[in-house]
C-alpha cells in the first residue's frame, strides 16, 4: 500500500511539473511583451515632447534650441518625415544666420536655398524668407553705396574712365568711403572668391571705382564690376 502511494505521488509530480514550467514560460513572455510595449509608449511620448518643445522654441525665435529638440526627435524616430523636415529647415536657418553674421552672403544664400526646399514649419519658412530678404538687402546696399561713392570720386577725377582709375589710386578717401571699400572687399571675397590679402593691398579708390556705373544692385552687376577689377589686378584669383 505504501509503495502504491509513493508511485501515485511521483506520477502526480510528473504531471504537474510540465504545467508549472509552461506557466513560468508564459509569464516570462507576458513580461517581455509588456516591457516592449512600455518602451514603445515611452519612445513615442519622448518624440512628441521633443517636437512640441522644438516648435515652441521656434515660436520664441530660439532656433539653436529648436535644432537640438528636433535632433532628439530624429534620433528617437529616424524615419519620422515631419521631424526630419523641421530639422532640415532649422539647421539651414542657423547655418545661414552664422554666414550672414560673418558677412559671407554667398554661403548664406546657399544655406537658405537648401532650407527653403524643405516644407515643414510655416514659421521656419517665414524665418528663412525673412533672412533671405536681409541678405539681398545687404548685397544691394553695398553695391549702391559703392556706386554713390564712385560717382562723387569720378566728378573730381576727370571725364575719361582710364583717367578716373589712375587718379583714384592716388586720391585720398574719406572714412565713409574707406568703410564702403572694406564692405566691397568682403563682398568680393564671399561672392567672387577673390584673395582677401590681394584686395587689402588695392587702394580704396580703385575698389570703389570698379563699381562705378554698374547699374542695378544685382548679382550680375557685382560680377561685372568684379571683372573690371580683375582686369586691373589679375592676381586676385
Automatic annotation (TrEMBL):
Question: From which residue to which does the signal peptide run?
Answer: 1-21
Q: Where are the transmembrane segments?
A: none
Where is the stretch described as Disordered? 146-179
Which superkingdom does the taxonomy of this entry point to? Answer: Bacteria
Q: What InterPro entries does this protein's entry cite?
A: TPR-like_helical_dom_sf
UniProt biased composition (Low complexity) = 146-176
Q: Which UniProt keywords apply?
A: Signal
Protein name per Swiss-Prot or TrEMBL = Lipoprotein
